[in-house]
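Forum > Structural Biology > Help requests

Title: Can anyone predict the 3D structure of Alkaline phosphatase?

Hi all, first post here. I have the sequence for Alkaline phosphatase but no way to get a structure on my laptop. I'd be grateful if someone could post the structure tokens.
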Amino acid sequence: MQTPHCRTPNLLLILLGPVMLAVGRAAMKSQVLYELEREPAYWDAQARATLDAALKLRPREHQAKNIILFLGDGMGVSTVSAARILRGQMEGGSGEETMLAMDTFPYVALSKTYSVDKQVADSASTATAYHCGVKANAKTVGLSANAVAYECNTTFGNEVYSVLRRAKAQGKSVGVVTTTRVQHASPAAAYAHSVSRSWYSDADLPSSARQQGCVDIATQLVTNVDIDVILGGGRMYMTPKGTPDPEYPTSNSRKGDRKDKRNLIDVWLKAKPNKKSHYVWHRKEFDEINIKATDRLMGLFEPKDMRFEVFRNSTRDPSIVEMTEKAIQILSKNPKGYFLFVEDEYYINDPLIENLIKLVVITIMKNYGHGRIDHGHHDGIAKLALTEAVMFDQAIQRAAQLTRESDTLTVVTADHSHVFTFGGNTPRGNPIFGLAPKKADDKMPFTSILYANGPGYVHINGTRGNITMVDYYDEEYMQQAAVPLDAETHGGEDVAIYAKGPMAHLFHGVKEQNYVAHVMAYAACLKPYTNCPPHPHSHTSSGCVNTTSSLLFGLLSLLWLLR
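Reply #1:
Sure, ran it for you. Structure tokens for Alkaline phosphatase below:
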């Protein structure tokens, strides 16, 4: 570090203080930030503030009352980095200096995502790992690796149990919020045991599996464990075959799917007659739910998966943040605490930012239907994946506003990555969906974002397509790929784990993915752990720790304002 300016950092921060108060979240112009960044004093002040806060950071070594697990399906590190830049650019900055809500979590680790039988895993085996604490085989949920995909008779005796189920057994309330169908692999591993992640309803089971006693995932949703809050999509798997969908009554493809003629919504409603249970499928009913008068809530807002936030009909379907908020409000009434799993779709809880997003992603896409980072990447359409990642981060931020770090362990992670990358020696502030500055060896331009494989492989007469002939900023633009595939594939590299709250410091270094479940169970003193962290003292040091946490990210506040 250079000595001539060693006193300047404090002066710089003093001078910047009134400016930060004045500009607020509107952010300084990029040129102002550029001028600051040219000075070594800026970087010294930034690093010193971060170092000082890090030295004062103390772990919360007491038991967690509540646990929230956020799962960004397919949200690899490259996706997080690109989403960070996108969010900053949506707000008028160059983007790179932006801080996401998850970036402010004090503890970070890496998760190894391989499964027992696959180097590059799927969402089912990974869900079993982070929910149940054991690695498993692809295509299976809630089962050990002794179970074989699609072989029903290998189910029995190989069941493994989730943190959600263990939390319920100890008197906590539990909930699932997802913008997929609630029977999707990621939430399913929290409550079901199936050799096929695709056995959503009994109509999906082969006759041999039914004869051997296997049960579809939707049935297990309402019979295996009493889940207090269930919010997402997946109506059609819950009602008898031919039942008209309430939202799309004339659509044959959205009618009820069940062969056994059971109405599983009614099964769930009647399961706990002593509790006040409600089912909703429409935004109006959802908004009218009286939290104080509701013990259990099921909301199924689409026949299958819910839609992207930017394509959501806001008069009919709630957003992911609204669902998360309602879930926390209901679950937090339990004095023993709760476990909440939140997956995927992403929401901007700021009208200005929301409008900016909708300018970027014009809502004209035709029947796309899948509101997830994962599906955006599989289709090779980076804009869908990244805008969803930005929205997901806003959901994390909203949850932070509704909870206390002193009693709630919040974990944010991904199940796997994707073969998505961005590069090309781009200059600072380059539009994230823009071109690299130089042409490739074939004398044609290329976008910074590319995929290693997928549907974006298009060659004409043996030559890569000239992207200047298309609008590569369009919301449906499919980035180029190196290898032709109908769908882009998952990536096999590690994914990040972000954590804050009680025992969050146990997330550090490089860990196996199943470690996530064990930390959550230990933090909340759930089976198999009995030698648990102590309960927090009646007069906790949370205020002091919060101050430390704030100091750690005091610098981030500066960057937040300069975005």
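Residues 1-27, 345-371, 538-553 have pLDDT under 50 and may be disordered. The chain has two domains: 66-358+365-419+489-524, 449-484.
Shout if anything looks off.
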